[in-house]
Every structure is written in C-alpha cells, then in structure tokens.
Amino acid sequence: MSSMWLAKPLVTSFVLKGHYGLFFHPVNSLPKYALRFLHCNRCRRSGIMAAGLDTINESPSSKLCQENYEPLDSCYTAEQRAVILQRLNTATESELTQIKLLRGRKAVNIINYRNRHGPFSSLENVTDVPLLKHKSAITVFDSILKPAQNMEKRKGKVHLAKFIRPEVDRAVLEDANSIVSIVCGTNKIAWTHMNRALTVLEWQQEECKSFLNGTYMASDYLEDISTVISRFPATDFFVVEKPSISPQNTSLYPVMAHLRTVEAMLFALLSPVREPGRSPKVLNMMRTAVGRHFGLMVGESRASGAETVRKMMTESVIKQEPRVIFPHSLVMKHRNSFQMSSRNKGEELCDALLQAVAFFEFLQVK
User: Fold this and answer.
1) Closest CA to 90 of 144, 37, 54, 44
2) Among residues 141, 118, 129, 119, which one has the least CA distance to residue 70?
3) Residue 15 CA from chain centroid, whole number
4) Which pLDDT band, with edges at 50, 70 and 90, does 62 fall under?
5) In angstroms, rounded to a whole number, what is the distance separating the alpha carbons of residues 147 and 129?
C-alpha cells in the first residue's frame, strides 16, 4: 500500500531569542484535526483513518473514477450509494433540477426512466438514462452528496455581466416589474412580455417580409421593425437576444449580417435619449447563456427548446405552483405552435419565452 500515509502534526523546536520558532507550538495549542477516511488508489474501500486532509473530504476517488471509467458502484461507499439512490428515486422533477447538471431534459429523462423501469437499483443504472453518461453521472452523484457546498459554488459563479450586456447594477434589474424579451429570426420577430412573478402577459410574433430579401434595403428593414416595435407594451427593460453565430463561419455570414442589422436597429429605435448616470433601457442577453440555463447546449450548438416550453405550458394548466404562469388564452393560442412537424413555426416564440424566464431566474441566484 505504497500510496497510503498518515498525517501527523509537525512539532519542531526552532527557538529565536526567547520567541516561538516558525514551527513551534506551545503546550495545549496543537492544531486540532478532523478525522477523515484515507483511501489509496489500490484499495479505495479501505477505512484507515487519517487526520486533517482536505482532499479526502470528497467522494472517495470520484476523480479517479472519472479518469479511469471505474464501475460507478465501486466509487462510493454503501452509505453514499444509499443516499444517492434515495434522492434519485424519490425526488420530484423540480427537486431534480436543483442538482448540478440536471436542469432541463436530464431531469425529465430521469422521471421518464423511473416511470418505465422502476427505481434505480444501482448507480450504474443511471448511465442508461439519455444524456447521462459516466462522467456526468459522477458530477451528479457528488452534487447530491454535497448540496450545500455545490450551492455555494454556484452562487459564486453567477455574474450577470457574463449574461447581460451592457452591465447594469443588479439592484436596478431586481426592481424591474416586467421586461419584453425579443428574439429575431430570419423572417420574423417574436417577443414575450413577462413580469417578475414569471407570469406571461403577452406572447406573440410578427412576420417581416423584407428580412433576407434582395439587397437588405435599410428603408424596408426600418419599416418592418418600426411596425413591430409599435406593438410592444410599456415595460422596464427590453432584452434583445445576442446571436451566437461566429464571424469565422463564412457560410452563415449573410444570416449574421442580417441578425446584427436587426439588433442594431432595435437598440437604436428602443433606446430613449439617456440622461447621464441613468441605466440603459435596452439590453443584450447571450443566447448561449440561456441555452446552458435550460440544458439545451450540445457542444457549441443550441438545441430547440420547444419541448421545454411545451412542458412549462402543461405545468401551468395542471400544477398549482408552476414554474411559469400562462393565461388560458395564450395556452389555447399557442398549444400547437411547437409541433415537430411544423418546421421552425414557433422557434422564435419559444426562444423569446425562454429568454424571459432565464432573465428573472438569473436574478434569483445571488
């Protein structure tokens, strides 16, 4: 057992003219160590006690398991396996979304797996759930075992400046009663008016016939965009989606130029004359940030959020405390807007709604 050793406090007398030396501790002042289980890479299940090693204050060898693809059940003690399985087998969907990596589709997939196959009998079974493989499963397990520490890390990582531009004081954003979330497509503009209680006040889209038509006539673009803006309700902030198309992707340059043109016009037409010191009224929100919030990112690309929106609409009808509140009239109006058979029919509508939800949920995490 070559890699195993015991931590002992080092006490060395190093006296300098009557003062305590660098490593000297007076009597009764020895450091107090908490006992931890010490594990080596050859015998992970050994229960040898060691003192004061912070690196052992983790799930036993979970990092090694990630690197070496060890069987998941062998990476945790019997007590830890029981805690993990109990949480995964009994948590509701909303409770699952509080666990790291389980936002969006992964939580839904766990519920579906339990309904079809019954409760998980082993940790290895979890990798049978779509979108949950070996490394991501270990991250989920460790998050279950240390939820408080995980929440502290998440809180420390939330910087609104990474998601919302230009930077605005957080207190100003939190005072907003409502926003209008705006998403531009290749032939339409969609918007969602939502208040801080996550109630959808208005949700619609408008086709713009001049978009990507001919030579990008500025006057035609201006007419279409001005018509759309005239239908926007009064609100505290207008939040415009920031496209995620890379300038290096030359094949999509016409689309990128179109989206940037519409984005610039929206900022120009919606921004009032600002007094010095006042916050901007029009903001950008990163498309990729919204995608990560709902677990829609596949590599650098963002998948459709139609399934997430359909689920929100269903919950609004059947649950007493849904994540998002939809008026009955909007549910009836858009219930068929996100069918897979209707290509891109409601993609902008869907994205405008998700952006509004993400905006207010980002503000809830401080």
Assistant:
1) 144
2) 141
3) 55
4) low
5) 22
